[in-house]
Amino acid sequence: MSERYELAQLRIEEINKCPEAEGALAEYFKAVTTFLIMVMETYALVRDGRMRESTEASKAVWNKRLYEELLNRYEGSFLNPQYAVNELGEYGQVLSAVYAECRSMIAFAYEMKEEKLLMRMELFLEIYSMFSMAYASKEKVDTQALNRIYASFAYDYIADNTEDSILELIDTDNGIAGRIIAGADLSATEYLYDYGEYISENELKMVRFLATLSDEEIDRMARTYTEGYRIGFITTGKDLSIKETVEIRYFIGIERVVRRAVELFDELGLRTSIRRAPASFVCGRRLSKIGYFGAIANKQFECDHENDRVLYIDRKYTERKLEALKNVYEKHKQQAAVFGGPAVIESFGEEPFCLVEKAEVLKPDAATRELITEYTVRSGDIVNQYIKGEERSFTIIAFPTPEIGDRFEEIFAETMQVNTLDYMLYRDMQQIIIDTLDKAKYVKIEGTNGNLTDLKVKLWEIDNPDKETIFENCVADVNIPVGEVFTSPVLEGTTGVLNVKNVYLNGMPYNNLKLTLKDGMIDDYSCENYDNEAVNKEYIKEHLLFQHKTLPIGEFAIGTNTTAYVMTKKYGLEAIMPILIAEKTGPHFAMGDTCYSHEEDMMTYNPDGKAIVARENSISALRKSDPLKAYFGCHTDITIPYDELGRLYGVMDDGTELEIIREGRFVLKGTEALNEPLNNA
After folding, report:
1. Nearest to 551 by CA among 515, 582, 506
2. What is the pTM of this model?
3. Distance from the first to the final alpha carbon of the chain
4. What are the DSSP calls for 135-188, one per residue?
5. Helix, strand, or coil here: 11?
6. If exposure means fewest CB atoms within 10 Å of the residue's CB, which of 14, 130, 243, 633 is most exposed?
7. Using alpha carbons only, what angle is made at residue 279 by residues 278 and 282, rounded to the nearest 5 degrees?
């Protein structure tokens, strides 16, 4: 392998000096080889220990150099599909995709994974050879043959990539991150550059801020997080003692909290797995990061290449990937069986990102979308066989980062208050709401102050009110902070309009989002992000429906965390608040799978001992007869803030109205304390 690497390196350096091409193609090969040489230099520095011995200033300069093209030259870069197509014509999309895939080599250079570097170097050289031979013979390169080279690259390494991905999840050999968490000086900023991720001023400021906090404050943050994970197992009746591993996901800069969390998990008998968010588009790179990650140098770039997979996804590819997934999990089934699930630390504070839609970006056609959906469902079933849903849990907590603005420290302190509210107090008030709604046949939600929501949500029927309930009483466990009651609605009879003026979903903004539901399914949709209605619809279909023709309403919930709501309004955080907190600041509705996806047959109980009966709907019930139609692989919460909420009330069989919220205030006796933050704001 080392010999192949050296030969590839020499060839790339030769091409950089004099590419055998003309015009834009020559510029493309020059640009890619310049980047590859920089990555190879990086690998040599890391491998020989010179990077580690460099000064922090030198590391910072090198970090900016690696990401400069994305930061400052993207519009005129071949990484931009629009520019690539304009300059390279029919070759633009695939050549841009190849260059984008090469960007993953930065991570592999820091991880000293020579084989993964070589794979991409040889991909590039194979493509260059095709153009070089065509140039010499004055012939035209066949676009389909070019696409097949990229497809073969993705196909040939399915087994290796799948095994790497699974082992990173369930194994505790944590590489760079493990070494940093265990041994770095986390009070200084130098360690940030050892990841190979882009480091902005935001990460530097975060480390400096955390260095000012006491060990007791760090412990409080970490303990809230790890206790949420532990309590999540207890409240759902799952046995934590049979688990040995927990995955920690975090944003770079918060390592001091992560280190303490690792220690606390160890006290619970859990070792930690830590993996980098996918760096490779072939291996699942997306704007939404799963793993640890640094600053995102260019969000438009991430979105422009999310669907490069259409170049290689077909039936043969998905079947081989499913086979590899099954084989790898079977090979490592003992490790998978003791994996408890993820513990996630989310960040918030970055400015809302407005995607520029481009015709030149690759998009899946209808058949490919169906294949992707089928793969998502079938792969989920395989994972569930080895990491059983009825045995695993999770927790999520969110903290602001300095990017949020000048009042960062104030917002951080108030977020800590929100994350550590008295869950017993909320549990009791939420039980009052649940006891009331258990009497209702359906719930009506009506907007105000320009919000056009007018929605009827059909509820499950209870056979035994003394032992059964419809809503789950959600305290501060898996979803920190405290503050919601939720259910899986009956689809048939759930009808009307859901409207939110401004909302931020899956990292994307929506202006005046409107969804029309018919029997619990999205029947129509619109927003006002762009002047063109067709563009708005495509935007929603791509980023909210995930290219499905429709989605069911998988969850109806009432958020009760008025303290979080007041904080959001006080600092003007509506557009950037993570859904984890935003969903607690009003009633919300999840489009896609239910909260009990793949766990519908597992009995779940509330703190009062009652069994939650509303765990499925008529779509998820298809898991027994037609499983490919039972799940959608998505669950997006959409929240109506209190100031846009006119009335929320249950309706009994005899027409009696059971009012829960009126003009943004809770009206049930015993829930008055929920209004105190609102009244004092």
Report:
1. 515
2. 0.90
3. 65
4. HHHT-PPPHHHHHHHHHHHHHHTHHHHHHHHHHHHH----HHHHHHHHHS-TTS
5. helix
6. 14
7. 80
